[in-house]
Amino acid sequence: MGEAVAAVAAVSEQIAAEALSHIMVKYEVLPAVLDPVLAAKEDAPQLHPPEKNKYLFTRIVQGDVSKWFAKADVVVESTYSTPGWEHGYMEPEAALAFMDDNGRLIVHAPQHHPFTGRDFIADMLAIDRSRVRIICPTMGGQFRRQVRF
Question: Domain locations in the chain?
Answer without folding.
Answer: 13-80+92-148
